[in-house]
Amino acid sequence: MWQSVLIQRALPLSISYLLLIVASLSLDYLLHVAGLSWVGRYLGPLGTAFIIFSFGYSARKHKVVRNGTLKAFLRMHCNAGWVGTLMILVHSGVHFNALLPWAATGLMMVVTASGHVGQYLLRKFREEVTRKKKELGMTDSREPEEYLTDIQQIVDSLTVRALEQWRAIHMPLVSFLVVLTLFHMLSVAFFLNWR
Could you tell me the CA-to-CA distances from 49 to 14, 67, 74, 93, 155 in Å, in that order? Predict the structure, then answer.
């Protein structure tokens, strides 16, 4: 039972997602109990900054940033996105005053779930590449010249097959979330009492 795909792959990501929700509700509750609910107002911009920081992974992947490993940037992307989402959930609390914050928060949770699916696909992709290398009789320490073309074709086909399907959903959701976030920020600035 513990060797099943569901337990090894899906359960940790589901626990991470549920932990995000439980942590945000708990932190929001603790702030209210301590009389510090006003702190949540400032967690929105701070959480947004964390999420913007998480886009460093895309910058590294597209070689805008040249230093650091892609693996480290991916880990930073996942962690900063998780913490940023936590802060924004506490910022939104359980009391929404308008449709736009409801929509933005709901979409943010969908994007976060989509990110968890992407983590799953990436792990599956890496395992598949390792399996294909073993089938070709290759070791991780040495790649003979005659296998380089085969490996490149395998890597390309697996990358395209697994990640294109996911990105076709994830990237438009992220774009729409950015638009909703900008509208939310503009509406707050417009309706803010500037006295």
Answer: 25, 21, 17, 18, 34
User: How many angstroms separate the CA atoms of 187 and 161, rounded?
Assistant: 40
Residue written as token pair 């990640």: 163
pTM given for the model: 0.70
- Residue 191 pLDDT more than 90? no
pLDDT in tens, 55-75: 888 888 888 888 888 888 888
Cα end-to-end distance, the chain, whole Å? 62
Phi then psi for residue 95, to 5 deg, are -125, 95
> H or E stretch including 137?
none
Q: Please report where in the chains the tokens 């509750």 appear, as a residue.
A: 29
Residues whose CB falls within 8 Å of the CB of residue 187, separated by 6 or more in sequence, listed in order? 98, 100
